[in-house]
Specification:
The chain folds into three domains: about 120 residues, 3-Layer(aba) Sandwich (Rossmann fold), CATH 3.40.50.10800; about 120 residues, Rossmann fold (3-Layer(aba) Sandwich); about 80 residues, NadA-like (Rossmann fold). It has 16 helices and 14 strands. Strands 2-1-3-4-14 form a five-stranded mixed beta sheet, with helices on both faces. Strands 6-5-7-9-8 form a five-stranded parallel beta sheet, with helices on both faces. By secondary structure, it is α/β, with parallel strands linked by helices. The structure holds 1,3-dihydroxyacetonephosphate and iron/sulfur cluster. The site of iron/sulfur cluster has 13 residues, from loops.
Length: about 350
């Protein structure tokens, strides 16, 4: 294996030309997927870009590529591994690129919540488990095994509709905000939602409250999107009359309700791109995406909906050095940072992912 350290001695120009050369050498054997939050020096080399849902679909459609280099975070690379063909290898350039929200739910705690619910009701008949795609593969497998499903930021409402057509209640993890705003949009009042605290017995809830709830929300959130506050929306509206506010649904319920529009990273990108020249926007999502849109559309006035910098530090771990190192190792015939979900986990997770892809 070629070591990583010397790549930090290279100039930006050298990194660019070596990444390009390695890509050319690998040709159609390798496809680079890039999430919209990736830093520019990496994103510019992506063959295909998108939000989580789009990238999941793309990963399953590129059966010609032997190697899928995923410039994103760990759960995304796991999904690509689950949906890709057995002859394909998925690579995450830096294994430390995780997701702090995904880490807020794990199988033992979800299983324990499920057991607690089973003590209160006929859980199999009444509750559909839904995991946001920002979660570990074994939680997707849990959903696959319990008639549940995966959702992303772009299809959470349709997935909830699907679930409510089958059973009365949902257990939604790990992102409480996406679950709350999506269920509320379908007409579920806040009084019929509870937040399950996995650190407390029975989620810290009275049995009666759990029994009457239609939506049981896991107490998880994104540390980046929680930075956007209602006061920021008010501030931008006061300062820029006519401004439109668009946010990611991982933002709080209040921020989502105040915004003019909300949606996945792909929807944010296309909405602002399609807007008329001269329009003014405040965007509540990760900084790299907002800066890219600002740069791409100087004819529009684009603001970041937060006075302080809020970046996804784990997305940021994928840098040009790691990308170059990964690709040059592949050229040398060495796979570094291959992602391989255990077969039994992948099989059950695939059931929940396929259900999602069939619905939305
Ligand atoms: P998208 O699916 O909208 O790209 O969101 C992924 C994510 O992690 C947002 O924080
Ligand atoms: Fe996870 Fe938040 Fe980063 Fe998205 S922005 S990958 S939810 S930590």
């Amino acid at each position: 294996m070629i070591p990583l350290e010397p790549y930090y001695e290279l100039s930006d120009a050298d990194l660019d030309s070596r990444i390009q050369a390695a890509k050319s050498a690998l040709g159609s054997d390798c496809v680079i997927l890039g999430h919209h939050y990736q830093r520019e020096e990496v994103y510019k080399f992506a063959d295909l870009t998108g939000d989580s849902l789009k990238l999941s679909r793309l990963a399953s459609q590129r059966a010609d590529a032997k190697y899928i280099v995923f410039c994103g975070v760990h759960f995304m690379a796991e999904v690509a591994d689950i949906l890709s063909a057995p002859h394909q290898t998925v690579i995450l350039p830096d294994m430390a690129a995780g997701c702090s929200m995904a880490d807020m739910a794990d199988l033992p705690r979800v299983q324990s919540a499920w057991n607690d619910l089973a003590a209160l009701m006929d859980v199999d008949a009444l509750v559909t488990p839904i995991t946001y795609v920002n979660s570990m593969a074994d939680l997707k497998a849990f959903c696959g095994a319990h008639e549940g499903v995966v959702c992303t930021s772009s299809n959470a409402s349709r997935i909830l509709e699907w679930a409510f057509a089958r059973r009365e209640k949902v257990l939604f993890f790990p992102d409480q905000h996406l679950g709350r705003i999506s269920a509320h949009g379908l007409g579920v009042p806040l009084e019929q939602m509870v937040v399950w605290d996995p650190t407390r017995p029975n989620g810290g809830l009275e049995p009666a409250a759990v029994r009457q709830a239609r939506v049981i929300l896991w107490d998880g959130y994104c540390s980046v999107h929680q930075m956007f506050q209602p006061a920021h929306v008010e501030l931008f509206r006061a300062r820029y009359p006519g401004i439109r506010v668009i946010v990611h649904p991982e933002c709080s319920f209040e921020v989502c309700r105040m915004a003019d529009a909300r949606g996945s990273t792909e929807l944010i990108q296309t909405t602002v791109r399609d807007a008329p020249s001269g329009s003014i926007w405040a965007i509540g999502t990760e900084l790299n995406l907002v800066n890219r849109l600002k740069h791409e559309m100087p004819d529009k006035e684009i603001h970041f909906l937060c006075p302080t910098v809020c970046m996804c530090s784990t997305m940021f771990r994928i840098d040009a050095q790691h990308l170059c190192w990964t690709l040059e190792n592949l050229v040398a015939g060495v796979v570094v940072n291959g992602i391989s979900v255990p077969r039994d986990v992948a099989a059950s997770a695939r059931i929940a992912l396929d259900r999602m892809l069939a619905v939305a």
